[in-house]
Amino acid sequence: MNEAPVRADARYVLYWMRRNRRAHWNHALSYAVRWANEMGLPVLCCEELNCGPSANDRMYTFALEGVAENARRLAALGCGYEFHLREKRSERGCRRLALAAAALVTDDDAEPFALDFDVPVAAVAVESSCIVPISRFEKREYAAYSLRPKIMRMLPQYLAPMQPVRVKHRYAERARVAFSPVGIQRMVAACDIDHSVKPSLSIRGGVLEAERRLAHFVKHNIARYAAQRNEPSKHATSCLSPYLHFGHISPHEVAIATRSEPAFQEELIVRRELAHNFARFSEDPRSLKSLPEWAQATLLKHAAGKRPHVYDRDQFAGAETHDELWNACQREMLLDGVIHGYYRMYWGKKIIEWSATCADALETMLYIHDRWALDGRDPNTYANVLWCFGLHDRPWQERPVFGMIRYMTLEGMRRKTDTEAYINEIRELERSA
Ligand SMILES: Cc1cc2nc3c(=O)[nH]c(=O)nc-3n(C[C@H](O)[C@H](O)[C@H](O)COP(=O)(O)OP(=O)(O)OC[C@H]3O[C@@H](n4cnc5c(N)ncnc54)[C@H](O)[C@@H]3O)c2cc1C
Questions:
Q1: Is 415 exposed, middle or buried (0-12, 13-18, 19+ CB in 10 A)?
Q2: Is any ligand 1 atom within 6 A of the Cβ of residue 337?
Q3: What is the pLDDT of residues 218-244, one digit of tens each?
Q4: For a substitution probing ligand 1, which of 264, 384, 407 has the most ligand atoms within 8 Å of its CB?
């Protein structure tokens, strides 16, 4: 990340855990340990939560639920661990530790982290977010069909179990972090963040919970995934997207555990890594300008098309449309921070149909994801929100408002899925709230 030298008189190599909040299956941590072993130093790992503009109780609670287990596992490996909760926007956390390190290792990501302060020591970013590193590609891929053969060619090289991390020089002080649920509530309440977005009702964070969900999926769902993943009331999917987003689980670990199911690997590897490719190589992954030309042209041609209903951002956010199924999807988002993948497509398509303009529709989808989605603010968010506008898709038959963009109907949802079962489930969820 820079040209600075390794610092000679330092006590540790710092691993700044910014994206992949886990101590296992973590290539950046593994790199930091090997580098520190060569220098005869221990590794200190630093994790922090800072008050970004969209920080709220839901995101903070989910991340904090992973901290105690990260501390325990890093101590077992022999690494130091410091967790910083930046309660106020002005506080400085891990940066202080970076200034005193021999060298800095951090996570590379689809949207690479800029070092927004001057690091006087050698700094390296290592990717552990995708299976085939995003940097193996040089440009934006057109769609899944163009990425798939390239990924499949490189997969044998990258999809291998990781060698265990072996620390030669243990960090002297042992971190003791024990956060009870009440303790987490108190910490979150003391932060200068948005307290109006409550923690998810049923989704708890952390590596232990991620591993439990993966084991449950492999035991109970994987065999029926291909047949039932588009029937929300069957609960056949993995529910791993929040954990992949916070880095509480590694895509390598998930891919190796699910090798027997090609339909799942298509989503986890091809679709997810296509989204990372899009986020890395697009000038602005949150803009309609990143759509293919045919999609921009057809949406422009139909910009003045008459909408059957028009809602504004707050009506959408409040689940106040005429459509009971759509409102149930939005309530799932408000209460739990996710929407089932199949209904999420319907949810997005209808926002396009019922917004005054495409720009308004995009703003609404991103606003809702930024605020409420546990897996939001992710390459998957941007690629999939723009998929609703034609990204990575092909032209379909022309129709009002959508032009040649793929369209979805309530009748289609009723025909293909048990919408009543889902609506009743969301009512139950609301009652439990
Ligand atoms: C409008 C819209 C917005 C979306 N926003 C997000 C988002 O903010 N974050 C997010 O992670 N996903 C998003 N998706 C993609 C998809 O809906 C979720 O990844 C999926 O529903 C998560 O549930 P799961 O973990 O049970 O998925 P599973 O079916 O169990 O799939 C396993 C994993 O594969 C990946 N995956 C699945 N479907 C897709 C896809 N279409 N594109 C890329 N990767 C995929 C995810 O990482 C997922 O966790 C969005 C889809 C749409 C249509």
A1: exposed
A2: no
A3: 999 999 999 999 999 999 999 999 999
A4: 384
